[in-house]
Each structure stands twice: as structure tokens, then as C-alpha cells.
Design goal:
Number of strands: 0
Radius of gyration: 31 Å
Structural class: mainly alpha
Helix content: 55-70%
Shape: flat
Distance between the termini: 68 Å
Strand content: under 5%
């Protein structure tokens, strides 16, 4: 039978009448890699060939077999222990997709085999393989609970994250235990993004006072944050800018909370608060007055600051002293207007565009503008630190201590977004 099949595919064969396993496999391996790759990826090829090819010496061919949805389960089971990570990763993606429909599988033997493979893949030594499996089964309601518990507690967030955020098989008790033991912010953040979080889980996340996780919780419109928990957040919120916008966007804020937010968020966010439907007349009027005051005071201060900064910057420019020392010094003093005017002059981009780039608070765009201005990377770091006051995670630092960290083409792309030709 094997000889006949090989003959159909390859033509005349010098195999004996009853070839051994090794002889048949050798016949396959003697033919070109391209042909074996083609066979490994075909859906219509006989399972016997896919079984043979699952032991091919070339890992690329074994990966094709692992990806092939028609590969027999016995061959898949062999590939679970394959020495090549890419092969096991391909298998994890395919086998994970079988999990939701596994309860409909008629053969108990097949069900057991698939569950055994998934169990092995969940303990794979490479996080990438486990992460692929977790991504495939993250919403599955019929996955083995012990498997979900293992993946949810994986030390690698790329594995645990999808399960923590999406799995319907994690109870509030499970989540609270994981929150108490969480060593990384990303695990808390994944939980904070879950749909319809109960007040108890919201309280547990907030109690950790993790800035990123709390921001994710506030952005989660379906999170049931209690009044007491909101008070806890508001006590710290003035100091944490990343919480301001998600707080303003929260549904069902009381007038008291709205007024409290208006006391420390930016004028742009106060405008959003004033536009919220359902505000009582007194609160709406107070917010509108606050917005008008901010505009009037801001316009006056901007005019005064601009006049002074403009004279200082243009004088330095005319004297040939508008350099790294001048701009970094202005940045360290927090003189945003002088920095903006200097970058506009040195880059020839115009003050309006320079202000837009500064307002974007993008470390990449600022760095590209500093490069365009002919200044050094340390100037960009000074602007990010002292003028924009970006948190460490959002900053773009020098490569090797002094070099621009972005390739020239990427900086040109960032400038192009603002209409600046590199």
C-alpha cells in the first residue's frame, strides 16, 4: 500500500514490495524539499503521508504538517514534543482552535488526545508557545478549569494576560487571589479590563494603587466602581494626570464629583465636563464660567510670555547663540514658550506647527523636531523631562547615551505627519 501511494506521487519506485517504515520514509526524503513542503501543506493528501512528514528532518516541513488542519491526531500528538519551537507554536495555534468545539466531538479517544496535547502545550518550556495557546482558548467556556488556572497564574504576562482579561472561567475568588499575589502591573491591568467587573474586584484593583491598572479600570465603562472606591481614587487623582481623561469620561458621575474634577483637570477636560448631558443648572453654569476664566487668563499669560520669549529667542538667534546650550537651558527652567519658539526658528517649521508638536506630547515627534532643528538628543531628553514632564514609560531616551534612538527615515515620517519635509 505504501509503495503504491509513493508510486502515484513520485512515479516508478525502486522500493521493495513490502517496504519498511524507514524505506518508505527514505523515499519521501529523497525527493525535493519543495515537493515535501507542498505535500505537508496539502489538505487532500493522505494521512499516511502527513504522518511520515511529521518526522521529516526539516523543521519547516514539520511546521507545515503542524499547521495542516487535516493532519491526523496521532501525527499531531508526535509534534507536541517536537524539538523546534516554531513547530510547537504552529501546533498550539491549531489545536487551541479545536477547544471550543471539543465537547461536540463524537470520539472520546479524540477528545482525550486533544486534551492531552493542550495540557502538554500549556506546560511548554517556551512562553511563546504557551501564549499562543492562551490566546486561542481565552474565551472558551469548556476549557478544563485546571488548565485555565495554570495559564492565569503563568509568570509571563503574555501568557496570563489574555486569560486574565477574557476567560469566563475565572471566578471573583480566583481574581481576588491573583490580585493579591500579582507581582506585575500588567496582570492587574489585564484584570481591570474585564467586562462587567464586580464592585469587589474593582475595590481589590484600586486597593493596589497601581497607576496603570487604575487608569485601565477607569477606562472600562462596564466596571462597577463603587462610590467609596471612587472617593479613594479622587483623593489621589489630582496628582495622576493619566487618570484625568478616563475619569471625565466615566458615566453617571454625580454633580459633586464633576465639580471636584473641574478643580484639577485641564481646561480642555473641563469643557468636556461642561458638555455632559444631565448636569444640573448650577453645576453647568459653574463649569462654563470656569472654562471662560481659563481661556481669558491663559490668553493674557500667553501674550505676556510670548512677547518676552520672542525677544530673547530672536536676539540669541541673531547673535548665533541659539544652540544646544540655550535650548536645553530654557527647557530645564520649564520655559515652554522659549523652547517652542527656538525649535520653530531652527527647524524653519513655523511657530504654529512647533506648538502643535509640543501639544502632542509625543516623545517621538519632539525628538524628530529636535533632530530637524540640528540640535543634539540631550535637548530632546531635557524637553521631555522638564517641559512636558513625561512619565518614564513614555520618554524616548538617547541610544548609547548620546545618539538619536530613531532611524532617520522614522523621524522623517513623524515630521511628515505635521506637514514638515525632512
Amino acid at each position: 500500500m505504501l509503495k503504491a501511494m509513493i508510486g502515484r506521487l513520485f512515479g516508478k519506485s525502486d522500493l521493495p514490495e513490502k517496504p519498511s517504515y524507514e524505506e518508505a520514509r527514505g523515499a519521501l526524503e529523497r525527493h525535493s524539499k519543495e515537493l515535501r513542503l507542498d505535500l505537508a501543506g496539502r489538505r487532500g493528501v493522505g494521512p499516511e503521508f502527513l504522518y511520515f512528514l511529521s518526522e521529516d528532518t526539516d523543521p519547516l516541513i514539520r511546521r507545515k504538517v503542524a499547521e495542516n488542519p487535516t493532519t491526523p491526531m496521532q501525527a499531531n500528538a508526535k509534534l507536541v514534543d517536537d524539538g523546534d519551537e516554531d513547530v510547537r507554536a504552529a501546533l498550539a495555534k491549531k489545536i487551541g482552535r479545536l477547544m471550543p468545539g471539543l465537547h461536540n466531538e463524537q470520539s472520546e479517544k479524540i477528545r482525550d488526545l486533544v486534551l492531552a496535547m493542550i495540557g502538554k502545550l500549556a506546560q511548554d518550556q517556551m512562553p511563546r508557545v504557551r501564549a499562543i495557546l492562551a490566546e486561542q482558548i481565552k474565551t472558551c467556556k469548556t476549557a478544563p478549569p485546571a488548565l485555565i488556572q495554570r495559564l492565569a497564574r503563568d509568570q509571563h504576562i503574555e501568557v496570563a494576560g489574555p486569560i486574565l482579561e477574557y476567560s469566563p472561567l475565572l471566578s471573583d475568588t480566583d481574581l481576588k487571589e491573583i490580585i493579591d499575589l500579582a507581582c506585575v502591573s500588567a496582570a492587574l491591568t489585564a484584570i481591570a479590563k474585564r467586562r462587567n467587573l464586580s464592585p469587589g474586584i474593582c475595590d481589590a484593583v484600586i486597593a493596589q494603587m497601581d497607576i496603570k491598572a487604575t487608569a485601565a479600570l477607569l477606562s472600562n465603562q462596564a466596571a462597577n466602581i463603587s462610590k467609596a472606591a471612587m472617593e479613594t481614587i479622587l483623593e489621589k487623582a489630582a496628582e495622576v494626570e493619566s487618570w484625568h481623561e478616563p475619569l471625565v469620561r466615566r458615566p453617571n458621575l454625580s454633580s459633586r464629583v464633576v465639580r471636584r474634577l473641574a478643580g484639577f483637570v485641564s481646561s480642555i477636560l473641563v469643557e468636556r465636563l461642561a458638555a455632559r448631558p444631565g448636569l444640573d443648572p448650577d453645576t453647568a453654569d459653574a463649569l462654563k464660567k470656569s472654562v471662560r476664566r481659563s481661556i481669558e487668563v491663559g490668553a493674557l499669560e500667553a501674550t505676556e510670555n510670548t512677547d518676552t520669549a520672542d525677544l530673547r529667542v530672536r536676539t540669541a538667534f541673531g547673535a548665533g547663540m541659539l544652540d544646544d546650550h540655550f535650548v536645553s537651558g530654557a527647557a530645564e527652567l520649564g520655559d515652554r514658550e522659549s523652547v517652542t519658539l527656538a525649535l520653530a526658528l531652527l527647524s524653519s517649521c513655523g511657530i504654529t506647527i512647533a506648538r502643535r508638536i509640543m501639544d502632542s506630547r509625543s516623545a517621538h515627534a519632539i525628538t524628530a523636531l529636535v533632530w530637524k532643528a540640528g540640535l543634539h538628543m540631550r535637548v530632546s531628553v531635557a524637553i521631555q523631562t522638564f517641559v512636558l514632564k513625561l512619565p518614564g514609560r513614555d520618554m524616548l531616551l538617547a541610544r548609547g547615551g548620546t545618539e538619536f534612538p530613531l532611524p532617520t527615515q522614522e523621524m522623517a515620517t513623524h515630521l511628515g505627519v505635521f506637514g514638515i519635509a525632512a
